[in-house]
Amino acid sequence: MKSNKAAKLPAKSSEKIKVDMKKLDSVIRKALTEGFGHPCAVLGVLGRRFAVPSRSQGFPFFRVLCDCGKDGLKAVFVSGFYEGKMRTSINDVSKTNKMVKTLLARIERKTARAAAKLAGEKAAPKKSEVAK
Asked: CA dihedral defined by 17, 18, 19, 22, rounded to 10 degrees?
């Protein structure tokens, strides 16, 4: 007979668990390299939860968006922090997904802002030149 994990969990939890972000990053990069044979760019975080497991909120997880070149956009889902063994799964992502669309728009805005700032610095004379 299977035991029901959810029945043993508390109803709600606000206690946070500590996660080594360097280890999490290495697990993600290792999964991507093994899956695609080359390193893939991590674009940003799609979702995260670092609280103790509970019935209302589930188990801790970390989900990132990656650009895998010719393979397209992928989401890497990492879980298992609470048990001490991190597990990963890689899934296709649709650009029409609300979280993905929001993250891509934020990246585009940051890129455009950085490009405008760089162009403005090149066009504007330096203060030391104006003073002479």
From this structure: 170
Q: How many helices (H) and strands (E) does the chain have?
A: 4, 4
CA distance 68 to 29: 11
Q: In what order do the strands lie in the sheet with 61-67?
A: 41-49, 61-67, 73-79, 87-92
Q: Which of 45, 63, 25 lies closest to 103, judged by CA?
A: 45
Global pTM? 0.74
pLDDT tens for each residue of 86-109:
899 999 998 898 999 999 999 999
pLDDT at 128 over 50: yes
Indicate the pLDDT class of residue 33, thresholds 50, 70 and 90. Answer: very high
Listed by start position, the domains of the chain span 8-93, 94-127
